[in-house]
Specification:
heterodimer; A: 225 residues; mainly alpha; 11 helices; 80% helix; 0% strand; B: 271 residues; 10 strands
Chain lengths: 225, 271
């Protein structure tokens, strides 16, 4: 394997891991709130979260590129705080991935929380357990399946990201040249042997990850029965 | 409800007059017509398809407009339906290898048409130079050529990918020539247009792109052409094309003196 490929693999895993952790932190309260919320605007909020599923990555890429520009509010604030422009950096990819993979993490969690046995929480409240206690000792352990699905889909989807990275990444090795971009470059330069190797590797690892998720889901189904 | 029934009756009446015999006659005519269309598509398509490197797109559009206007002035029977597909030359080459039905390929370099020629995918003897590219450095303020190197040091510069784009390769040679290749923060764009887009959205301070793309409202400095190997753009007629007669006519026009004048006016050098 070439050095560029190893660098890209490490970078991709780093991006996917970091994005997944941040997504779980962000999506857990969001999904919990959505699961409880009964207001009129619920469909609108759900639609907003589902948007990255249907929007072409070019739409997100375009808006992000404009938002990251130091001429605009967000890009300017970032530049002032960090001293570095945001576009074409690893941070830019993390922000892009969080937006792009958000529905993949929120939706499984929300499904899980909506089916959560409410009487358990009520019982715990009556017994005087704190909000944090209830969350860490009842909700999280009982939503294991939802968390596993959410984390795996978030991870896998970030590894599979291409369109947005192509627009906001800038193809910099070690910084923004993730696997999908390196693969694209190999295809563009007619290095088909190398491209086959990477593609097959991605295919097998994605298939294994997804199979593992479905297998674990099935197992926990049986467990519940 | 009554209204619906009366309408159905009206429809039935008309259906009756449309006899089985006339139906089959019409069907046969349709069949022959469609067979004719499919058959003629295999021989000479009414549509001329040009695969064009991104940097040449604005120029090619102008050429096509000029060509079409000339053809209609002559009121010849020549079909003027010309479709352009623009992408990086490498991408287009790949599509041609995979059997894309392009009639003409206008590459941003010399190597890719040669590769297609070796694969017997071009019409014999049609590979020719059609334009010589020039580079322009986009910047926020005007910079004299002598101070280019100084202002680029430690700045963010977007260039096309040197691995896939001839203009990216030339840009890299320019940086090496200035002796600052290692002191510039390079952002690699997918092609010259994306490098330009990085500059327009203010995400980079400078961009090296093809001069043919530059809008006059942006500030730019022309890069002296001896700072990089000449960007020789070759084209070829493709053997997979479906509109060979039209393609040959347009290809002749592309190399005519008046077309070359338009090409040079769009920021290319004389061949």
């Amino acid at each position: 394997m070439s050095e560029a490929e190893i660098t890209a693999i490490i970078l991709t895993i780093k991006l996917a891991l970091l994005s997944t952790v941040l997504l779980l932190l962000l999506a857990t309260p969001l999904a919990w709130w959505l699961a409880q919320y009964r207001g009129k605007l619920k469909p609108l909020y759900e639609a907003i979260i589902a948007l990255p599923l249907v929007l072409p990555p070019t739409v997100l890429g375009f808006y992000l590129l404009v938002a990251f520009s130091p001429n605009n509010f967000f890009g300017k604030i970032w530049l002032n705080f960090t001293g570095q422009p945001l576009a074409f950096s690893f941070s830019a990819l993390v922000i892009g991935s969080i937006i792009y993979s958000l529905p993949f993490v929120v939706q499984p969690l929300q499904n899980n929380f909506e089916r959560f046995p409410r009487n358990l929480i009520e019982a715990a409240t009556v017994l005087g357990s704190s909000r944090f206690d209830r969350f860490s000792t009842i909700i999280i352990p009982l939503s294991k399946r939802g968390f596993i699905t959410a984390a795996s889909l978030g991870f896998a989807h970030t590894v599979g990201e291409f369109g947005i990275v192509l627009m906001i990444g800038g193809n910099i090795p070690g910084e923004t040249q993730v696997l999908s971009i390196l693969l694209y470059e190999q295809v563009e330069t007619l290095q088909f042997a190398a491209a086959h190797k990477l593609s097959l590797g991605l295919l097998i690892s994605s298939l294994s990850l997804l199979s593992l998720v479905y297998w674990m889901n099935r197992r926990s189904d049986k467990h519940h029965d | 409800m009554k209204d619906l029934i009366s309408r159905a009756g009206y429809f039935k009446q008309h259906m009756n007059s449309f006899t089985a015999q006339s139906f089959f006659q019409k069907f046969a005519v349709l069949l022959i017509l469609s067979a004719h269309c499919t058959f003629s598509a295999a021989t000479e398509s009414p549509q001329l398809l040009i695969a064009c490197a991104t940097n040449f797109l604005p120029t090619l559009k102008e050429l096509v407009a000029h060509y079409s206007a000339k053809q209609s002035a002559l009121s010849t029977s020549i079909k003027k339906d010309i479709q352009i597909s623009s992408a990086a030359s490498g991408t287009l080459t790949q599509q041609i290898i995979q059997g894309a039905p392009f009639d003409i390929f206008l590459s941003a370099d010399a190597a890719l048409p040669k590769l297609l020629e070796e694969k017997k995918l071009t019409e014999a003897g049609s590979r020719r130079l059609y334009a010589v590219g020039t580079l322009a450095l986009l910047s926020r303020q005007a910079i004299p050529t002598s101070e280019l190197a100084k202002s680029l040091v430690n700045a963010r510069l977007s260039i096309a990918n040197p691995k896939t784009a001839p203009y990216g390769r030339a840009a890299q040679q320019v940086l090496q020539k200035m002796g600052i290749a290692k002191n510039v923060n390079i952002v690699t764009a997918n092609n010259v247009v994306q490098a330009y887009q990085h500059f327009v959205t203010a995400n980079v301070e400078f961009a090296l792109t093809s001069q043919s793309l530059v809008d006059s409202k942006h500030t730019y400095t022309k890069i002296p052409s001896h700072w990089h190997a000449p960007i020789q753009q070759y084209g070829a007629l493709l053997s997979n094309g479906r509109s060979k007669r039209q393609a040959a006519l347009f290809y002749d026009y592309l190399h005519s003196a008046e077309a070359q004048e338009i090409i040079v006016a769009n920021g290319y050098e004389k061949k």
